[in-house]
Each structure stands twice: as structure tokens, then as C-alpha cells.
Amino acid sequence: MSRIVIISNRLPVTTQQNGEGLSYSPSAGGLATGLNSLDDSLERVWVGWPGEEIVDPDTQSRVREDLFKIGLVPVFLSKKEIELYYEGFSNKTIWPHFHYFTQFTTYQDEYWEAYSLVNQKFAEALKPIIQPDDLIWVHDYQLMLLPAMIRAFAPQNSIGFFLHIPFPSYEIFRVLPWREALLKGLLGADQIGFHTFGYMRHFLSAAYRLGGHEHLYGKLRVGNRLINVDVFPMGIDYEKYARPGIDLFANDDSFKIKQLGRNRRIIISIDRLDYTKGIPQRIKAFEQFIERYPEYIGKVSLVLIAVPSRSNVDNYRKLKQSIDTLVGKVNSAYGTFDWMPIQYLYRTLNFNELSTLYQVADIAMITPLRDGMNLVAKEYIAAKDEHKRGVLILSEMAGAANELSSALLVNPHDINKMAEVIKQALEMNENEQVWRMETMQQHIKRYNVKHWANTFVQEQKRLMEQQQAFNNMVLLHGPHRNTLLEKYRTAQNRLIILDYDGTLMSFHPDPQAVAPDADLMRLLSQLSSIVGNKLIINSGRDHQTLQTWLGPLGIDMAGEHGVWIKRNGQWKINPGLSNTWKTDIRPVLEHLVERTPGSFVEEKDYSLAWHYRRIDRDLGEKRVREIRDGLLYITANLDLQVLEGNKVVEVKHASVSKGKATLSWLNEQDWDFVLAIGDDRTDEDVFRVLPDESSFTVKVGLEQSAARYTLANVEEVRGLLAELVTAGF
């Protein structure tokens, strides 16, 4: 049976030491529910902190033995480590920063050092238990360095990471002094999951701007690895909340909660006490609602549940004081002997009480200022499975808003609008309530926590298969590489066709700044001088530049995608071409430059190219989308082609291409070895015209291609060419 190793800050079981010995109780949270619902074919091992400082070695041994029986592995942390790593860096640095509360972000090297050391402590705990075929899944912001640490000692294992909080925009993330280390830690994973597309987009932006890692449809290439970055919205255990089996006569407050809705409408607000939850704004909105619509006085109550959290942290103590003051102000201003506007409880509810409150509530007001997902909103919807009536007021800033579009969505900072929406919710007719509720129930019933966990794992397994196939192609491992070199050695007539930019030389913001270096010139000279070799440079560059840079080599070349061809030392133009069309196209591209500072137009003899390598990639791609249809319309009757390359859009004659230029050499004689290497879409024409049986076509980079193989970058291309030089002498 294959295994999945789950790593989180806390184990799903809390260990407690008392006078009678050790006791174990389930930890709060829905993560355990989701992960326990994984496919039974997967054996589960869970690694994490047991919830209490355990110092005595004998006690640690007993805890290990007890937890091992249920597939759990404890990582023992001291109170000091919890203070600095968890309460410190995790919750005083990452938590506020990733939730956009940068005014609360604490920058302390001591916190960072503890965070790094505890992540390493988790890695050390994993070393003895990781098996070669284990699938590894790391969870949340407390362990962002761990994927790269695991990668260092288990490079063949598949590692997943899921972030349960928002990932901030690049402009926020870049402020952290430890940004590169955190990014590097995450990029140790093979699959990185987020709740929403927005968080995913922010991460990809940071990976590109800080690490230079470009993505293709959410897939990154780091070294020789593919990394899948995707969206996996977390769900809930729907049936648990839809059919809770409430006992109104249990030894708790369930019966009293049931009586709340007898004579008035109930709005509930349930949150952990945290500045990200927008509780003060919610109270102010309710106050304004009462002030603006006095006809609801005595008829509507806000039941405000604030679950204690981090009460020893100054920001949280101040927040509680603020909430206490606001509640007192509203109740003293509007309360009567038989009605209090706000019923405020600073406590935790058990499941029986919580389920009862969900069922009696006419409205749930869930309006965080920023939230990774917010499962309370989904729990409320599920609790209405039987009666269907109820209204969800939900913050646009909660990750759940992306899925629950039938809720009444609000900006939690807009107090006036929230007051209006409370009235709208109270006056909503039953048919609309049922329609909205059923729409959301259908969604969260299907996309429950089991679906979330199983989808993440299935996608990671699929990525493992893709990675295996990719590995064989990327480095031309084993038989692939050996076959290429052996055919090269035994061949008498060899045709080698190479692109220039992005293949032999790395890209640069200034296209004229990538003249060949001495090493490249020496390599090409050696390769072209080997008996039997025919070396061709097939580029989109203008022929004058190619002649200046590579002319001394005396090799054949094609410029401007085949507009110009050099054979036997002579450049000749493709006959029948015209460049009069430029007068129509040039103004379009120049207008684009005016709107996009940093971009520029490159004019060649028979083509025009708009470059956006110097500007933000996303802005460049936005501009491309804006002009693509217009350019295609203009060029349709001019026998022109619009090519999208690597941060460049080029307009050229449709009758010429790198592929057609290649045919002029391919048909020159019978070749018993053909190698073509290129990096962008224009090189696909070359790959397609070459015969499969005798050709080695190589794509540089991650994109899908008609080529049979890929290489990672310019350095790997040069490494292969150096091997050919050695093999040819």
C-alpha cells in the first residue's frame, strides 16, 4: 500500500499531561476530516506538534509509542520555540503580513531564526520515516521552509504544499526581508495549492519577479522539476452540518439558543477573535442599521460570538477591549428591558450549540476584512439543508466569496452599504432565500472537504507521472542521450540547425546586448569545422546583425524567419516580397509603444516586431490581447502573419517561415543525422518539417512543443553542443 505523509503544525490529536498520566483528545479543525477521508488505498502518516511541551525523554518515548499506533509522529517543541516560531514569526510576522495588516507585522531576527530552526526540526523528524515512494503533503504558513528542506534529503519524493491563508500581492510580499527564503522554501514542493485564483496569481507573480521563474498555465519549471501551482478551494464535511443530530436537552446552552428566535429575527456573527475578521466594522454596521431603520428596534438581534484567540498578544487584547466598548455603546444606546441589540459571548461553542445557532439564525453575517477561505459561511449553508431558508451576508474579501456568489456580497469597509444589505436580507422573500440557498448548497455539497483532499492528491499523482515523462525528455537521460550521441558519431552527413536568441544566448532587455561571447564563438567554430557537419543558424534576427555577429564563422544562416538566406557566403532575399505594408502596421505598433513605456518597435527589412521584454510581463500580455484581434484583421488581406514569440509580437510575410527556410537545407542532400534546437513558437515550424525517424528536435524551455525532447536553458544547450564537439573529433 502506498503512503501519504502529512505534515502540519499541529497533530489531529492533542496530548495532555495530568496527574493521572497522559491523555489524548481530538484537535479542533476540519483538516483532519478531509485528510481522513482520503482514498483507503493510501496509508496515512501524520507528523506534527502534539500540542504541549513534553521535556522528559521517557514521557516523549511513551507519547511516540502511543501515537505511532494511530499513524501519528510527534515533533516535540519547547515553550520557547512555540513562543518564537509559532506565536512569533508565524503569527506576528506572516499572519498579519499575508492578511495585508502590515502595520502589525513584526520584523525580528530572533523570530526568523526560531522559524528556520523549527522548520529544520520538522525536517529532521521526517528523515527516518520517509520512504522512497511516499507522497508528502505539507500544510500552511508555519512550515513554508519545509518543502525545500525535504527536497534536500528526499529529492525523488513528490512533495505537495497547501497554504490555508491568503498569499499577498507581490507589492506586499516583497516588503518581507525573508521573502527569497520563503519563496525558495515553497518552490521545493512539486505542487503548491491555494484557495483562490487570486492567491495563486499573486504567488506566480512573486515567483517570476523574485526568482525569474516564468509559468505556463500555472506550471513552473525550477531546475529539472515541474511545479504545478493550482487552485483547490477547501470545503467542509457537508453531512456533518446538514444532519447534526442536535440534542436540545444536552448539558449545554442548546435549548436556550433554540429559544432565541421565538419573538425576533436573529443575525449571527461567529469568528475567532482576530483583527482580520472585521468584527468592529460589523458592530458599527449593525448600529447604523438600527439608527437608519428604527422600525426594527426590538425585532432583530445580533448574536455575536467571539472565540478567544491569542489573548496574550497586545493587538488581540486591544481588539477585545474595542469590541467590548462598541457592544456596550450600542446596547446602552438602544437596549430595553426586554431586548438587547447585541448578545455578545466571548467563548467557544461546542458542536451541539453551534449547530443549533446555525439553524435558528435568519441571517449569518460573515464579513472578514481578509480571509483565506472562511468555512463558517459554508457550515451555515449546510446547516440549512432541511429548511432552505436563511440569508448569508458575506465579505468580498473572504476566499469563499469566489464560490458563494449567491450570497449577498459586501465590502466589509463600507459600513453604509452593509447596513443597507442587512435590511435587504431581512426583507428577502422566501422564494429568493430558497433559490440562493439551494444554489450554494449544491456547490458545497459537491465540493466538500473530501473532494478537496482527494483532488489535491490525485493532481499530485498526475503530476508525478508528468514529471517522470518530463524528466526523460528534459535532460535526454540514459537511452535518449546515448542514442543521440551514438547516431551523431556514426553519421556521415549531419545537419545541425540552431536558433539564436533564447537558445545560444540568454534573453536581455536590449536585443542588441546579446552579441555572442568568446565561448560561444569557439564552440560554434569547432562544431562547424568537424567533417560531415553542416551548421545552420536559423533566426528571427535581421540579417545585418547576424552577419556582424556570426559572419566570421563562414556558416549558412537564415534571418528574419527566412526572409534572408545566406548560402555559400552570399545573402539572398526571398523573391516576391514587399514591405509596403509597413506603413499600415507601423502606426498600430507605435501607438502601442506610446501606451506602454519601456516597450519598443524593432524594424527589419521585411518585418516589424513589438518587444515588451523591458516591462511587466502581465502588462505586456494584456497589451498583446488588446491588439491581437486588430492586427489579425488588418493583416488578413495582406498575406501577413502575426507571430507571438518570447515577449515579442512580430508581423511578417505569411509566405516565409523558419520551416520553409529549413527545407532549403534539408532537401540539399540525404542527411543521416539531423538536430534542430529552438526556444519559441517560430521554431515549431522547423520541428514540424523535419522527419521524425532521423531527426532530433529539441525545445528549450517548458512550453508544449512539437519537438521530441526539451532542454532547460541556454547552459544545457551549450553543454549538449560541447558533447557533440567532443564526440566529433
Write the layout of secondary structure elements.
Layout: E1 2-10, E2 13-18, E3 21-26, H1 31-36, E4 42-49, H2 57-68, E5 72-74, H3 79-98, H4 109-126, E6 135-139, H5 146-153, E7 158-162, H6 170-173, H7 179-186, E8 191-194, H8 197-211, E9 215-216, E10 219-222, E11 225-231, H9 238-242, H10 254-259, E12 265-272, H11 279-292, E13 300-307, H12 314-334, E14 342-346, H13 351-360, E15 363-366, H14 375-383, E16 391-395, E17 408-410, H15 415-427, H16 430-446, H17 449-474, H18 478-490, E18 494-498, H19 518-529, E19 533-538, H20 543-550, E20 556-559, E21 564-567, E22 570-573, H21 582-595, E23 600-603, E24 607-611, H22 617-635, E25 640-645, E26 648-653, H23 658-666, E27 673-678, H24 684-689, E28 695-700, E29 709-711, H25 714-728
Parallel strand pairs: 1-4, 1-6, 4-5, 6-7, 7-8, 8-11, 12-13, 12-15, 13-14, 15-16, 16-17, 18-19, 18-27, 19-20, 27-28, 28-29
Antiparallel strand pairs: 2-3, 9-10, 10-11, 20-21, 21-22, 23-24, 24-26, 25-26
Short description:
This protein has 729 residues and is an alpha/beta fold. It contains 25 helices and 29 strands. The longest helix is centred in the middle third of the chain and has 26 residues, at 449-474.
